[in-house]
Hints:
alpha/beta; 3-stranded antiparallel β-sheet; 9% strand
Amino acid sequence: MEPKWWQKAVIYEIYTKSFKDSDGDGLGDLFGVIEKLPYLKELGIDCIWFTPIYPSPQVDNGYDVADYEDIEPAYGGMTAFKELLEKAHALGIRVVMDLVLNHSSDECRWFKESQSSRDDPKRDWYIWRSPREDGSEPNNWANKFNDGSGSAWTFDEKTGEYYLHNYAVKMPELNWESRGLREEVYRVIRGWLDMGVDGFRLDVITKLKKPPFVDSPKKPNPFGYVLDNEIQSCNPGLHEIIKELRENTWGLPQYDAFAVGEAGGVTEKNAEEFLSPKRGELETLYHFQIVSRNRPTVTLKAYKEIQDNWGQIFNRGSWTTEHLSNHDQARQVSRFGNDSSKYRKPSAKCLAMMTHVFPGTPFVYQGEEIGMTNVYFDSIDDYNDRYTLGDYAAAIRDGMTPEDALRKVRINSRDHARTPMQWDASENAGFTVPGARPWIKVNPNYREINVSSDRASSDSLFAFY
Ligand code: GLC
């Protein structure tokens, strides 16, 4: 069978906020991306995946969506997006959007309506539960970002119920049991497809089906809550949700689009339940057996085993992806390679080759193509990542010294990957306009590691990519 376009593509992930700032507000934006399209074309990529660029209060850098039908004004709004789509397509580069369907921002119109009264027609678009008899949270679940009290529930005074938020307090979970929510989401997604978007990356898609709302039996953290990741993914009923979602959106015959699921909890053992073409669920996904955030690295032996296991699924018509880092992970050359001046380039090349020779669609994360490395800031104030800040606050509450807490949380901070793209050796790595201040500090090694110095060298990583 002739391969589909997304099976032949190299996908480049853009974290817009950190890619290129065109107007000096310190935030990357879509006009900055437009300026760099020729760079991406020369790199040889076929498709861009944008992490969420919808209007957002930026509690989680866009993964808290306030309006699913618009583009963040600070990124240039819809005008910039339409221009970008047209120019990218003219260069033969496709565009994939991130869809955050597990939760929204509490500033989303949907949530405000849902919160307005118990009888609001959108009440069941989110997950509301009564307090226990003593007034406490409906169960003992913790939120992942250690936000607020640490509980996954926040009490709403006005309507006297708790709402569920498995990430941050300002990121309420959507309720996929609601027919009204489903129909609205399908309509919104078709709008993006009709505009010409080529596909979607589905954020935490394996969590749309919730487990029963009962206490986790695991040992609580010092604040009395339990972070039980296992119970949140791949619950019975999930497949029905994904199948219906696809049937009503990118799977419709008038579109030539695909979806890649962020698939926590999926291994080679249950992957085909999502990927087998006869299931009609996901075209592809990425799993966490190699890059799980809390595992510092993997041995070569483990890597080979994982690749061997996943290799089997291609024989039966399923398709998967290859990546060693993204916006949630440490920089791959620092984590799996060696970022010393002697070995940085050869090890970055080795990792690139591993990503591109195995079967599956390769994903490249911005800056990987010049071997950008991890960063270790000396003050917690220089960090932005919600995990880092929440874990730091919890460590302090638990009695750790500020120095120890910082040392602990910066190891796995997602900010390793989120510092501005290093374009050249000028002030702030050429990320923003002279004199402006980036939203997060640049990695101090930008004078040596940047696009222009890499490309000037005879053993350029860019050229290898
Ligand atoms: C995904 C995203 C991550 C985000 C989380 C909650 O894992 O990749 O950046 O924080 O979902 O939306």
